[in-house]
Amino acid sequence: MELSNLTWPDVDALDRNTPVIIPVAALEQHGHHMPVFTDSMLLGEIMRRAHEELKQQTLLVPLMWLGNSHHHMDFPGTVSAEPRVWLDLLSGLVENFITHGFRRIVVFNGHGGNDVPGRQVTFELRQKYRSRPDLLLLYATYWSLADPPSSIPGLTQDSMQHACEWETSMILHLHPELVKDHQNTENIDQGNPFLPAQRAWITGDRTATGHIGAPNAATSEKGEQLLKLFSSGVVKLMQRVIQWDGESWDG
């Protein structure tokens, strides 16, 4: 079920154990070769595919395209909420559905910069509603739900990066007309600065072009396989949410 197509009485008639799915992504630079709406387009397609299998069992909220993208602000075209504003925005959105009585709320993320603040949101809300063992709050970034290198032939990267082989492949499959001369991009390695410590950074510290990874290795065929894999990961997680007994720690 898509929230945008329902009336409020339709929503009110739903079982409050119906899982609510909230997709969050971004509008930000993706190098010289990719559109700024890449993250939102990819997550939107992954959720569309997953929802085809889940639509009678879940409530899908329209995608929130405004992300926490301040680390990309040196690149024109990036649109970002202030970090604390973004936390409060997502927190309020999740809390709306808690107010309406829903008990299973899953945020699916499509932008790496949302990952830490998004998990912070669910952590803070669990403290606020600490007397509610029936409340299931989950936060998942879609590419963490599958293991692409083991199943996709020819994939050169072993992890998601930025405007990289993975993202470029998926956009090549969905909208090839929006990808510009990716074959002539250079490989930019993620690097290993000061690990295991976490170095504070902005994107410009790491790349002058705005991409990280190997977009020159991207193909439409890899893109379709990645989209299938990631949408399958979403479905598998949501099936666990649907089957949850409403009280146990392990899902």
**Overall helicity:** 25-40%
CATH-level-4 superfamily name of one domain: Creatininase
Level-1 CATH class name of one domain: Alpha Beta
From the alpha-carbon coordinates, what is the Rg to the nearest angstrom?
A: 19 Å
Helix count, DSSP H or I runs of 4 or more residues: 7
For the secondary structure, the number of strands is 4
Q: How would you classify the helix and strand content by structural class?
A: alpha/beta
Query: Span between N and C termini?
Result: 23 Å
Key features of this structure:
36% helix; 7 helices; 251 residues; single chain; Rossmann fold; alpha/beta; four-stranded parallel sheet
Provide a descriptive summary of the structure in words:
With 251 residues, the chain is α/β, with parallel strands linked by helices. It has a domain at 3-152 and 231-243: 3-Layer(aba) Sandwich (Rossmann fold). It contains seven helices and four strands. The chain has a four-stranded parallel beta sheet, with helices on both faces. The protein is globular, with a radius of gyration of 19 Å. It starts with 7 loop residues before the first helix and ends in an 8-residue tail after the last helix.
What's this entry about, in short?
The chain is α/β, with parallel strands linked by helices and 251 residues long. The protein has helices spanning 8-12, 38-54, 83-99, 115-128, 165-174, 203-206, 220-243; strands at 20-24, 59-60, 104-109, 136-141.
What order do the helices and strands come in, and which of them pair?
Elements: H1 8-12, E1 20-24, H2 38-54, E2 59-60, H3 83-99, E3 104-109, H4 115-128, E4 136-141, H5 165-174, H6 203-206, H7 220-243
Parallel strand pairs: 1-2, 1-3, 3-4
